[in-house]
């Protein structure tokens, strides 16, 4: 899995959940849920979708590593390599 | 033969626009099938049928707005003898249990079948032959309807259009290119009623509530430490799609507490309280483009925690996609509004008529908590209740709130 496709996949899943937010408009280092205005159910939906897409278990204990867009991208990159 | 009616769409909506006919004349339908989609101020709502039979004919075209209670289609019951073949011996067989009270047992709908097509709430239409009164607005609506239902419209676009009151017909003839949210947003800019329909619906319901319902308010702090620990432990071994959220525990605790204080659960109509046996918990869900809806999670009292979580996920996903069921909007018996984990300390709800109670859950946070003689940091949240004084008093309300709090102390029993 190339980094490009991970990035695209993440953007795609976020777009499904928050179609009104443009990736170019958010701060990728800041709190993901605030930047995309998503609640705990939306976040769970995102984690579920990413887990299925990349065949990852996405444990709840790892949620602190998924707090910003960049952090989540890094997490996916590390776990899929 | 009976009529399939424009369903009740909740306290605040009196009309809806038929936007999709999902079955064709002659098709078999069965109890629970979604056979139409109706556009309302709160988005596109799927409409189920509650009988078995064959759809005889549609009485209303897509794109036409009609009041609640208007016949949308004629349904030939499977127990009707006419045209059903020689093997149906009992024409007098009573209709199978049919919760639509206004089913029209008219034997022969033919004499005035097109008449109910365009009833106007302001000006009752005369009986008999449909007069050729010019109705410019309706004509326009009917004209664009033909294009409209063939267009491919993304769910986000449909949702935005419904919420901003943009008429999808104005997008012109259908093309291969799907209509996206930005197409609608462009229209919205020139459309002055942006947001106003949804806001008007909320305003109408809440004004009615504040005018008619003598609210009283209570609040109680609940320790969520055990509930949170229970969820963490459970979720550690669960795949993401099986994980629980605190919201499911709130729902279950509320449904249990209702069993102890049943006068919180039901509807107040025409001067009387009708207590509901089943607990259909309305869940307040904010919409991304503004406004909120509170569709019902059916039978919250009898569902297991896992089933309730699944139902909640399904309901929220459908609300987000702008598609939910008419029944879900009109049949809640009590409402739960939770601020989630990024909100403020407490919320005092406004009761959604004709219900008689709404429970609010503030944002959980670590706060000082006295246990014995020690002050400890505990995860707490503020529960609030707004309830109807015509039905209950503060003492019963207090019992209800403390019952919810107690159930949340024993999450493993929920």
CATH H-level homologous superfamily name of the largest domain in chain B:
Chloramphenicol acetyltransferase-like domain
Radius of gyration of chain B: 24 Å
CATH class of the largest domain in chain B: Alpha Beta
Give the strand tally of chain A: 0
Mean model confidence by pLDDT of chain B: 80
Helix content of chain A: 55-70%
Number of domains of chain B: 2
Write down the secondary-structure element order of chain B: EEEEEEEEHHHHEHHEEEEEEHEHEEEEH
Radius of gyration of chain A: 11 Å
Total count of domains of chain A:
1
Report the sheet-strand fraction of chain B: 15-25%
Q: How is the CATH topology of the largest domain in chain B named?
A: Chloramphenicol Acetyltransferase
What is the H-and-E element order of chain A? HHHH
Counting DSSP E segments of at least 2 residues, the number of strands of chain B comes to 20
Average pLDDT rating of chain A: 91
Written overview of the protein:
The complex is a heterodimer of chains A (81) and B (414). Chain A has 4 helices and no strands. Chain A has 81 residues and is mainly α. Chain A has one domain (3-80): Non-ribosomal Peptide Synthetase Peptidyl Carrier Protein, Chain A (Orthogonal Bundle), CATH 1.10.1200.10. In chain A, helix 1 (3-17) runs antiparallel to helix 3 (40-54). Chain A is globular, with a radius of gyration of 11 Å. Chain B contains 9 helices and 20 strands. Chain B has helices at residues 136-148, 155-164, 181-190, 196-212, 225-236, 246-260, 305-320, 326-330, 394-409, and strands at 2-5, 15-21, 28-29, 34-40, 43-48, 53-58, 65-67, 71-77, 215-223, 266-269, 272-275, 281-283, 285-286, 292-293, 296-297, 323-325, 334-338, 357-361, 365-371, 374-388. In chain B, the strands form 5 sheets. In chain B, strands 9, 12, 15, 17, 18, 19 and 20 form a 7-stranded mixed β-sheet that branches. In chain B, strands 7-2-4-5-16 form a 5-stranded mixed β-sheet. Chain B has a 4-stranded antiparallel β-sheet with strand order 1-8-6-3, with no helix packed on it. Helix content of chain B is 28%, strand content 25%. Chain A binds chain B through residues 17-20, 33-34, 37, 39-42, 44-45, 47-48, 51-52, 57-61, and chain B through 156, 181, 232, 235-236, 239-241, 243, 245-247, 286, 288-289, 312-313, 316-317, 320, 340-342.
